[in-house]
Amino acid sequence: MTVRFSGKLALIAGGTGGLGRAVSLAFLEEGAKVVVTYRKQEELDALEREAGSKGSSIEGHRVDVTDEIAARQLVDRVLAEHGRLDALVNTVGGYAGGVNLWELETKVFEQQLALNLRSGYALSRAAIPVMLKQKYGALVNVASKAALDHAAGAAAYAASKAGALALMDSLAAEVKGTGVRVNSVLPSIIDTEANRQAMPDADFSKWPKPQEIARVILFLCSDDARVIQGAAVPVYGDS
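Now predict its structure.
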């Protein structure tokens, strides 16, 4: 087994969710200290149990990372306690769809922007100055296939994910040549329990697994991917 992140620290926003849990476990397997944000205590407890003996390398913070002040305070705390931030992965997001744009409630539109776009904005503004000072760091933001494929009934979701992709593209250009790298991954429907319950008649075998996407994210955060900057990596599975 490779241990590419021994002695390094990874901050996984939403690190106890369906995809975030797989990303957190993947970093732990390769020797990282993992700081996760979470909303539900039971999800953090489940992550620690699944991590087994590596659970002691998990540090959890209940933080709303769509709040710019809270995101900055989190990064400041991580830096004060650990002195470094090697990787930031934003898996925070949410989906709302099935409604025509003119029938969509404005509060739902705002929620989609907050979860899918503002989270990456707030986290980047907090973390990038730290990484620039270090002259090293990797940021991976989870966007979506919907950033490129704008289906009917998903205008708010598609717009928020397209915005997130554009945000990271511009950020990657801004940090070019600094030692800091910024990339995105674009999953299709991920094979999580929540998605299975929402779409019980779907062919789950075609959906990418969280562990498969986690391996791609791990690669993008590693030194093996030091020549990759500003990429939008499709992780669609067979769907």
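The two ends are 30 Å apart (CA to CA).
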